[in-house]
Amino acid sequence: MAGSAGAGGAMAGSAETGGVMAGSAGAGDAAPGAADTISGGAAWEPGPDLGGSTQNAAYQGDAMLYTCPSCGAEIVTDATTAATFCYYCHNPVVLSGRLTGTYQPDFAIPFQIDRKRAQEVFSQWIAKKKFVPREFYSPKQIETMTGVYFPYWLFSCKVDGSVQGQGTKLRVWTAGNLRYTETKIYDIARQGTVEVNNVARNALKKANRRLVDGVQPFEMGEMQRFSMGYLSGFMAENRDMERNTFETEVSQEVRDFAVSGLKSQGTAYDRVQITNQRAEISEGFWQYALLPVWTLTYKERQGGKIYYFAMNGQTGKVCGELPVDKGKLMILFASIFLPLLIILLILGYII
User: Which residue has the higher pLDDT, 192 or 79?
Assistant: First the structure.
């Protein structure tokens, strides 16, 4: 903290201007992580902007693109994977061509959980749900469980920020019959460089993006350079939202994060009033990544509503929206209501 003596007393403090703070964001539509203060700072160089402008050398082999005529899902997989149905709505899909270079990912988090373990987790999870239709967890249904990579845009940058304001310290004491209050006001200033990594945004605007929303966060430190080998035996959603959709929102988010980190260093005061603040983004770049999710969907016969089970293919976190078996509910209702009605009728007759 660097400052000058304000009204009410002198200020004692050591200079902290020019400090460096580092923070990172996990997957999911969330704010960047908390900042930590470190001294010095090594040279920082951004990676190349690979989000659709550069051919990734690690992307080898042929990627095939399938389109579902029902829900519009665009499914990407390798040429050896037989994609005969849409993992989301179970309708047949149509081969529409090869994946173009502009949609090639830069990174992927490989699946850490295999199909057998995913099915075991599902069976344990569904066993606790008493009113789900048998069709939802039948062996044939479980066999349709699919590993899907979902698309995300990741933004990284540096933010140079500063805040100025006034900090107030109060001290109250009593001597005899008199009560004293001492107020000290300090001019305060904070400035620093915040390094923000991997602020994530889901690149789907379709309904099936909810499959990945509930299983966040992902551990972004385990990302690997994308290779076609990751798609073997899996599918991937093709993004339908470009990074310019998020630029204004994400830029404001990282600025707010930087300013918030600087403000949080004013905890030595009873009250802080900020009079000026600044945050400028530099060296920003976007990258495109695929994140792993095991999915199991169920299309209701009447109405066609989609219910689902989803599990994070890296951490194992699960979520789902389940159908209700009305027949099972009627049996429960009858087993409780009818005996109670009979008892009431008997008591009413006796009385």
Answer: 192
Closest CA to 108 of 283, 11, 235: 235
DSSP 131-174: T--GGGGSHHHHTT-EEEEEEEEEEEEEEEEEEEEEEEEEEEEE
Residue in the structure block whose two tokens are 């690997």: 224
Q: Which of 202, 291, 290, 194 is nearest to 246 (CA)?
A: 202
Residue closest to 310 by CA, chosen among 299, 321, 294, 290 = 294
Residues pairing with 109 in the sheet: none
Instruction: Please state the rounded mean pLDDT for residues 125-152.
Output: 83
| Mode of pairing for the β-strands spanning 146-175 and 235-237 | parallel
Contacts of 185 (CB under 8 A, 6+ apart): 6, 7, 8, 166, 167, 168, 169
| 246 or 28, which is more confident | 246
Contact 140, 296 (CB under 8 A): no
Which of 308, 84, 223, 299 has the alpha carbon at shortest distance from 75? Answer: 84
- Kindly report, residue by residue over 106-136, the tens digit of the pLDDT: 999 999 999 999 999 998 888 877 767 777 7
Smallest Cα–Cα separation from 103: which of 38, 40, 55? 55
- CA atoms of 236 and 78, how far apart (whole Å): 9
Helix (H, G, I), strand (E, B) or coil at 26: coil
Distance CA 311, CA 205 (A): 20
Beta bridge partners of 279: 161
By percentage, how much of the chain surpasses pLDDT 90? 36
What totals of helices (H) and strands (E) does the chain contain, helices first? 5, 13
Cα atoms found within 13 Å of the Cα of residue 183, Cβ hemisphere only: 6
Tokens 């140079």 -> residue: 160
Question: How far separated are the first and last CA of the chain, in Å rounded?
Answer: 83
Written as six digits, the tokens of 335 are: 């087993």
Q: Are 26 and 20 in contact (CB under 8 A)?
A: no
SS3 content of the chain, % helix, strand, coil (to 5): 25, 35, 40
For residues 30 and 217, the answer to whether their CB atoms sit within 8 Å is yes
